Amino acid sequence: MTALRKYQRLESPGLWREHPSAQLREVIVGLREATLVLSDPKTEMALSQWSLPALQRLNPGKVPALFAPGLDDEETLEVEDSDMTAALETVRSALERRRPKPGRLRGVLLGGFGAVLGALAVFWLPARLIDYTTAMLPPATRADLGKLALQDLTELTGSPCSTLAGTDASVALGLRLNRTQPPHVLVLRELAMPLHLPGDLVLLPAKLLETADGPEAIAGYVLAETQRAAATDPTHALLTEAGLLATVRLLASGAIDPQALDGYGQTLLAQAPADLPTETLLAAFKTAGVSSTPYAYALDKTGEATLPLIEADPLPQGSQPPLLDDAGWLNLQAICAS
After folding, report:
1. Sign of the CA dihedral 247, 248, 250, 254?
2. What is the pTM of this model?
3. Which residues form the domain of 316?
4. Dist. CA 323–CA 173, nearest whole Å
C-alpha cells in the first residue's frame, strides 16, 4: 500500500493507557507494515501491538489525537506528534477506502475474508511475529537466549572447557578478531563441528584445537561462524524452534521458558553448516587482519578444494598483528586438558 510505505518505520513519543483506570505511560509509537507497536522507551520491549485496519480515532480534529485499537477496546493512545498523527490518519483513510461495500456478495466476501484471516493466523502471523521479535531484541536478551540454547546443547556435548589461562586466551582471540563486537569463543569436548548461537557465541570442537597448526586456522573457523550468524540470525532460528507462544511471552516479559528449547541442542547438531561464498570469507579475513591460508589447509590438507582461499589470501605473509603469542596459543590448546 503506497500510503503505508510512505510512512514505514516512523516513530514518535506517545502516552498509552492500558485500561480506563490505569495511569498514562510514556511509550514509543512505531508504525510498521501492518501494525502499530507501542514500546517501552527504556527497555525497547513491546508493550502492546495494534492492528492498523482496526485502528480508531476517538477525537477527530482535536490535539492530542486519541486512538484506540478498536471501538470496544479499553486501551487508548494519545499522540501529539503531527507527523505521526497525519500518518495514522492517512493509513486509516486508505484502509477505509479499500474496505468492500455491502452488497449481494457480502456473505461470500465475508466467508472468504474469514478464510483468509484463518490462513493468516496459522501461517503469516507466527512468521511475522518472529521476524518482528528478532529485530526488536536487545543484545542482553540475545545473550540470555544463547545461554539457554547452550544449556540444552551441553546435555549432549558436555560443558564448555575452562581453565583460567585458556579462557584468557579465548577472550584475547575474540578481541583480536573484532574489538567492537568480539565473538565469545567456547570449546566443547564432544562437539563434532563448529556452531554459533545468539549473543555472539561461537562453539568449537576440542579436536580442532588439538590438531590445528596454529591460531590462524582456529581464527578461520571463528570467522566463518560469525559470517554464518551475520547471514542468518541465529535468534530467528531459535525463536522458530521455541514457537509462537514462547515468542509472545518473550515479548511480554523479556524472558523465555527454558522448556521451550528442550531438544534444541539435538536440532543444532543435526544441521549441516551453511555454505559461505568465498568472497564473503575473504572479506572477513581481510577485515580481521588474518591470513586465510592456514584455515584453507585445515579444511583440506591438499588445498585443492580450498584453492581460492589460498590464492586470494589477503595477508599471504601472515596475520598482522599476530593473533596470540606462543604462550597464549598453548594455553588455548590445553583448555580441555584438565
Report:
1. positive
2. 0.65
3. 136-333
4. 6
